[in-house]
Design goal:
- The complex is a heterodimer of chains A (573) and B (42).
- By secondary structure, chain A is of the alpha+beta class.
- Chain A contains 20 helices and 22 strands.
- In chain A, strand 15 and strand 16 form a beta hairpin.
- In chain A, helix 18 crosses helix 19.
- Chain A starts with a helix and ends in a 5-residue tail after the last strand.
- By secondary structure, chain B is mainly alpha-helical.
- Chain B is globular.
- In chain B, 24% of the residues are buried.
- Classes of the chains: A alpha+beta (573), B mainly alpha (42).
- Chains A and B meet through strand 4, helix 9, strand 6 and helix 12 of A and strand 1, helix 1, strand 2 and helix 2 of B.
- Strand 6 of chain A pairs antiparallel with strand 2 of chain B, so a sheet runs across the interface.
Chain lengths: 573, 42
């Protein structure tokens, strides 16, 4: 480094050092006194932090100055020091402590700033000063919704999109109204986009009020809900990981869905007469419903069944549940029927398809007899069926309809196979215990050759069968009635899935050939079409009629003169 | 129907009912509680 550079560097260092010293106001004499006072106070607090306040009483400082500078006495120095301090408020503060003036400064040479201590997160503060309880309950916190589906109004569904001129008219009307006067509360309430706040509930029916309560409480995360029961979430007992593990292991061990009461008593060891039995039952159901990966709710309001992965499937293994649901898709278009008051019995005639797979459709009165899903997104419910005639009880799975699959009951395979034949008439009744009774009319043994499937050959065959149940004759698939079905191969899966193709195949199998060999035309009546088409896939009489009358299927036609007489003319390739 | 909402006073009352109960309350019981409150306030 050159000598020039060294000088510059030294100057720079001196400048940096000088800038840390305060500049005093006043005459040179005042500045000298202020500097002395500061140095004295710095000496007193030489071990203090730079920002710590240094205090010295004015009399003690005056005494020091009077001893070192004798031109003034103590009183004069005291007055002079106060005057100098007042002129240098950046460096000194004057404090009165017990009527004695004190000068306050810091080692840094600046007046101290009041220290602010943040006690916000001091643990002691948090324990000793709890948050006061709010006078009013907080606004319900909205639970995030997975999907918001806006249902179209009836007008939109029926009338299609609103014409443009009507929209313009509405806009104009709206503008006029806003120009003239503000909307009245009644108008706001009637608007489809505004919500009406209900203060007085006396005008609402119980059903409407219950729905309002359920809708609003369900959105509140502080409220626990299961079925139609509610509790504050914080009041619901919790289940440990061990409780959940033992519950799952017990379900696997018992190898069947179990009710909440069984789980409560056998796994959690709670007695039915325990004081907290009802609350614990709710807690068990609520907590298990939150563990969707491990547990699935398959219960009803009367019997709350739970299942877990790895349990045997209720129902047939011959056909996938999803495929059966697809087969019953046409049920989604059917209107829901109400059971007559006081009636809790439904009659049903067994079709070949139902017999083969041990299923029953969730249609008409049977759907009305069955319970609805108790919780949102419930896939299935386990129902207990009793057969007083065979002294057996078995579990049936009710598959709820979904967007593109119809609902059905599964698990009758063995019962149908052992006791009934296609065409059998039986009843299903709901008893007071929430169990379903299935009963048929027993008759003396009858021997007939009935349609069956030869699994090895993949064909339909007629085999002699002895059965002891009453049948509805027009649904019985006997050899005498449908000899054409013997040795007929099973329909391909592709054709089975489409009702119109399955119906066409049925015409070709059992219909009466009225055309020529080059231009065939088949005729069949509903009484034959219904049992024969239900061999391949479920089909209702309404579905058959709608297929035949649909303009999309010109190959089918109905007889103009005779009811339920139909024709099918295959397209010539 | 879908535009109806219970007032905050009603909801506060329902939450109070739930807070004061150590067992589950059914929807029907909540309906009855609201009706009882409406009658008492007249």
């Amino acid at each position: 480094m050159t000598p020039g550079r060294q000088e510059e560097s030294a100057k720079g260092m001196q400048t940096a050092e000088a800038s840390s010293e305060p500049k005093f106001a006043g005459t040179k004499k005042d500045q000298a006194v202020a500097s002395d006072a500061l140095n004295v106070m710095r000496a007193m607090g030489r071990f203090f932090p730079k920002s710590a306040p240094l205090r010295a009483s004015v009399p003690s400082l005056a005494q020091y100055f009077a001893a070192t500078h004798t031109e003034r006495d103590e009183a004069d120095w005291a007055a002079y020091l106060l005057k100098v301090a007042k002129a240098n408020t950046d460096v000194f503060q004057i404090e009165e402590i017990d009527d004695v003036a004190h000068l306050v400064t810091t080692s840094a040479g600046v007046a101290p700033t009041p220290a602010v201590v943040d006690h916000t997160h001091v643990l002691a503060e948090r324990f000793t000063e709890p948050v006061p309880f709010p006078a009013e309950a907080p606004e319900p916190r909205k639970r995030a919704k997975t999907a918001q589906i806006v249902e179209p109004s009836a007008e939109e569904l029926i009338g299609g999109p609103v014409p443009a001129d009507e929209i313009e008219e509405e806009i104009e009307t709206g503008l006029e109204a806003s120009d003239v006067e503000a909307e009245t509360p009644a108008a706001v309430a009637s608007s489809s986009t505004e919500m009406e706040i209900v203060g007085d509930v006396s005008d609402l029916s119980d059903d409407v009020l219950a729905e309002l309560i359920a809708n609003q409480l369900r959105d509140d995360v502080s409220v626990a809900n299961f079925g139609n029961e509610w509790m504050l979430e914080e009041n619901v007992s919790r289940l440990s990981r061990g409780d959940l593990r033992r519950t799952r292991e017990y379900l696997v061990e018992r190898n069947e869905p179990l009710t909440d009461e069984v789980l409560l008593q056998d796994v959690l060891g709670l007695r039915p007469n325990a004081e907290n039995y009802v609350a614990m039952k709710f807690a068990l159901n609520y907590r298990l419903s939150r563990e969707q990966r491990e547990f699935e709710y398959v219960g009803t309001a009367t019997q709350r069944f739970w299942t877990t992965g790895g349990l045997p499937v209720i129902g047939t293994t011959k056909r996938k549940a999803s495929e059966i649901g697809q087969d019953y898709r046409f049920l989604l278009n059917e209107e829901r029927v109400e059971l007559p008051a006081g009636e809790a019995v439904v009659e049903h005639v067994l079709s070949f398809y139902e017999y083969q797979y041990g299923v029953l459709p969730l249609d008409g009165l049977l759907a009305a007899l069955m319970p609805a899903a108790e919780i949102p997104d419930q896939r299935a419910a386990v129902l207990v069926f009793e057969s007083p005639q065979t002294y057996e009880t078995f579990q049936i799975e009710l598959r709820f309809p979904t967007g593109n699959r119809g609902g059905y009951l599964a698990g009758f395979d063995r019962f149908f196979l052992e006791n009934l034949v296609p065409g059998a008439l039986f009843t299903i009744e709901l008893n007071d215990a929430g169990h379903y009774l299935i009963e048929y009319l027993p008759v003396s043994g009858e021997d007939r050759k009935l349609l069956q499937i030869d699994e090895k050959r993949g064909r339909y065959v007629f085999r002699p069968m002895t059965f002891y149940c009453a049948t509805q004759e027009d649904m019985v698939l006997s050899e005498n009635r449908f000899p054409q079905l013997a040795n007929v191969p099973l329909l391909e899966e592709r054709a089975r899935r489409r009702p119109e193709l399955a119906l066409a195949a049925t015409f070709e199998r059992i219909g009466e050939q009225m055309g020529t060999s080059d231009a065939p035309k088949y005729m069949a009546i509903m009484d034959d079409l219904l049992p024969a088409s239900n061999v391949e896939r479920p089909m209702s009489a309404d579905l058959i009629r709608s297929i035949i009358r649909s303009t999309e299927n010109p190959n089918f036609s109905a007889d103009p003169d005779m009811e339920d007489v139909f024709y099918y003319e295959p397209t010539q390739s | 129907m879908t535009n109806l909402h219970l007032s905050s006073e009603n909801m506060t009352y329902l939450l109070t009912v739930l807070r004061n109960s150590n067992h589950p309350v059914t929807t029907q019981e909540l309906v009855a509680a609201l009706r009882e409150r409406a009658q008492a306030s007249r």
